[in-house]
Write a structure and sequence with these properties.
Elements: H1 4-11, H2 15-22, H3 33-46, E1 66-73, H4 81-92, E2 98-105, H5 114-118, E3 124-128, H6 132-140, E4 147-150, E5 159-162, H7 164-176, E6 183-187, H8 193-209, E7 218-220, H9 225-237, E8 244-247, H10 250-262, E9 272-277, H11 281-285, E10 292-295, H12 298-315, E11 323-326, E12 330-331
Parallel strand pairs: 1-2, 1-3, 3-4, 4-5, 5-11, 6-7, 6-8, 8-9, 9-10
Antiparallel strand pairs: 10-12
Helix pairs in contact: 1-2, 1-3, 4-12, 7-8, 9-10
InterPro entries: HTH_LacI, LacI/GalR-like_sensor, Lambda_DNA-bd_dom_sf, Peripla_BP_I
Pfam families: LacI (PF00356), Peripla_BP_3 (PF13377)
Protein name: LacI family DNA-binding transcriptional regulator
Length: 344
């Protein structure tokens, strides 16, 4: 195994310079970009692996414990954080050696997180909900500790993902086999690639089946209860014939169910509803009527993220490119039924 002395010798710099660079303090200590590049070139050439456990990453001196940071975007997805934490808790319970720290960040501004750049407050990081700007930052930045990505793909970091397009295709298949050829789609903002991929999976499946979903049947809204309620009302007011509503999130679907109830439209007899199940499963199960959805296994994904992070810490390695892709099962409940006057 290579040593930090060998890195310094190959890069032609001092031990202290190598330490400053790999510990994320180059900018603060005014180390030039050219010097940093030489250090990282040497690290890669020698396949140098910093001894993570030996760093003083915590204020306490307890070397038996490890700290893992969860970076979670502070936007509409904060309501989903409880599901992720529940999954991590299943891994942590009974293991007093793991300390979890939740760090919030603004979408698109992950690069502003000093603790991420410094890397001295934790042994590994799980990064969730990274935007395209955040992913660009991660792909271009040398971090000196293991990073695991939740629901994103990268050749540089280990990832725990699902097949986003497949989620949309599953929803389409369940609708089509029940005769729903004309549907409306209530989708959220297109700022996030994975949301667009789910919609594309649905749209492509309908296109291939010969029933394209035209633009006037696609309504953009916020991923919220109020957003879903408003979008559903807009769809009804348009008077476009449809027998089902696809919703890009559970929150949108629950809002839509409220509007359908207020308008005295029976579900699923007169209108079916299906969603991407990214919310609390109990909310969907206990809605009136219970909500059918394509389930995002967030708790299991959280467990797998934690497993990868802990493995990287225990082995003192930063693994690249490993991807775990989990299935997204369909959950049939009361909100999805046969299309009225189904054609033979």
């Amino acid at each position: 195994m290579s040593t930090i002395r060998e890195v310094a010798a190959l890069a032609g710099v001092s031990l202290s310079t190598v330490s400053i660079v790999i510990n994320g303090q180059a900018q603060a200590r005014k180390i030039t970009p050219a010097t940093c590049e030489k250090v990282w070139d040497a690290v890669r050439e020698l396949d140098y692996k910093p001894n993570i456990a030996a760093r003083k990453l915590r204020l306490s001196a307890d070397s038996e414990s490890v700290t893992i940071a969860l970076f979670w975007a502070n936007d509409f997805r904060t309501t989903m954080l409880s599901r992720f934490l529940q999954g991590m808790q299943r891994q942590i319970i009974g293991d007093s050696s793991i300390e979890l720290v939740v760090m919030t960040y603004l979408s698109g501004q992950l690069s502003h997180q000093r603790s991420l750049l410094d890397g001295r407050r934790f042994h590994a990081a799980i990064i969730a909900n990274a935007s395209e700007e955040d992913m660009a930052f991660l792909e271009q930045t040398e971090l000196n500790f293991p990073v695991v990505l939740y629901n994103r793909e990268s050749s540089r970091y280990p990832c725990v993902t699902v097949d986003e397009q497949q989620m949309g295709r599953i929803a389409a298949e369940e609708l089509l086999k029940r005769g729903h050829r004309n549907i409306c789609a209530l989708t959220s903002s297109g700022n996030f690639a994975y949301m667009r991929q789910r919609d594309e999976g649905l749209f492509n499946a309908y296109q291939q089946a010969g029933y394209p979903i035209y633009a006037d049947r696609i309504i953009q809204t916020d991923s919220s209860l109020s957003g879903g309620a408003a979008a559903c009302r807009k769809a009804l007011e348009s008077r476009i014939p449809c027998s089902a509503i696809y919703c890009a999130s559970d929150a949108i679907a629950l809002g839509a169910l409220r509007t359908l109830y207020d308008c005295k439209i029976r579900v699923p007899e007169q209108m079916s509803v299906i969603s991407i199940g990214n919310g609390e499963s109990s909310y969907a199960a206990y809605a009136m009527p219970a909500l059918s959805n394509v389930y995002l296994p967030m708790e299991t994904m959280a467990e797998k993220c934690l497993e990868l992070a802990r493995k990287a810490i225990d082995t003192h390695t930063i693994t690249q490119g490993q991807t775990i892709c989990l299935p997204t099962p369909f959950q049939l409940r009361e909100s999805l039924g046969e299309a009225p006057h189904r054609q033979a």
